[in-house]
Amino acid sequence: MFSHLPPYAGDPILSLMEHYQRDERADKVNLSIGIYADGHGAIPVLSSVRAADLELAASPTPATYLPMEGHAAYRHAVAALLFGADLPPAQHLAVVQTLGGSGALKVGADLIARFFPQPTIWIPDPTWDNHIGIFEGAGFTTERYPYYDPQTKGLAFDAMLAKLDGLPRGAVVLLHPCCHNPTGVDPLREQWVQIIDLLQRRGLLPFFDLAYQGFAEGLEQDVWPVRECVRRGMAFLLSNSFSKIFSLYGERVGALSVFCPQAGQAENVLGQLKLTVRRNYSSPPMHGALIVARVLGDAALRLQWQGELEQMRVRVRDMRTMLGAQLETAVPDRDFSFLLRQHGMFGYTGLSAAQVDRLRDEFGVYAVHSGRICVAGLNDNNVARVAEAMAEVLRG
Ligand code: KET
After folding, report:
1. Which residue in 91, 348, 313, 130 sits closest to 239, CA to CA?
2. Which of 15, 216, 268, 324 has a beta carbon 3.0–4.6 Å from 339's, enabling a disulfide?
3. CATH for 12-46+301-395, among 3.90.1150.10, 1.10.287.70, 2.120.10.30, 3.40.50.720?
């Protein structure tokens, strides 16, 4: 019955993780998947999360089904985090709880695919690999717009604008509001203004993917492009994830928000989102959403969490500085200042796939084939080894 099924070629990020787990070398270093590890190399349980979890355990909620759209207090807390205290009114905003950021992308993709025939999405070149999988899996054609310029190791801004300017009205454009994955290269504020001007003038539909709010400059600053679209009354979709910023990867906590400039549309949009959820997995899981709702809804816990997020952000930035400095000493004829200009968890090193293979095979250092390293996997104990290994493969 199943003999015609081909083998799975594997996932560029998750399969690497499996490979890493099987590696028996004691000094192996995992810089592949985007998971934040603390200064001791452990995935943290945030103290704000632990406190909320203990409170929940003290008065357990029956594990009934959540509504299709998710937990009400959670949805409200998420909207306030994303859009600020003076939220767009309910008739403009549809928010559903989803299974992480991936679930939000899938629910959004399914919604568009159902109501916009022959959907195409323009994604940055490069982007998170699974954008292609999720959107093509939902029936989209994926096209690319220029984003990263390997020459300058920065944004290919003019080429990006030129490409977007030629897209048909209503075209869906995927954008990372901050901490672009995999490059860490984000537009400057004045570049965002020009990008948003263009999206508005050309009538394009932004689909923002926000997996790292707070990891670039801060919770408020990182979401600026999204709020600017609200201010201008532009329609958009926004997926967000609590995997990284709450260190709740396995709980699968995220949301999809759809902003509807015309009052009243959000009700139908929310209804169709509920139907999408019902057809896929019926309703979302409860525990992670209760934790996030409790932390965001309690002034003291929220402050505690913001402090912990800030600590993560600063530690990753310090690791960038340290890695950059060590690489500059080890390979003095090269410039590594680009590492410091990048935002978020990732460093886009410019290493080739062959160099990444050497890093793994000879030194037990795991990076993604694109040359992306997870800087959040570095710490005082492994950074020198990683810099030395990178220097060795760069010397050839
Ligand atoms: N969007 C982006 C941009 C992203 O980097 C990730 C995860 C997600 C969505 C998915 O979020 P989640 O809440 O886990 O469904 N990225 C890391 C993990 C992965 O590949 O799944 C990564 O790039 O390593």
Report:
1. 130
2. 324
3. 3.90.1150.10
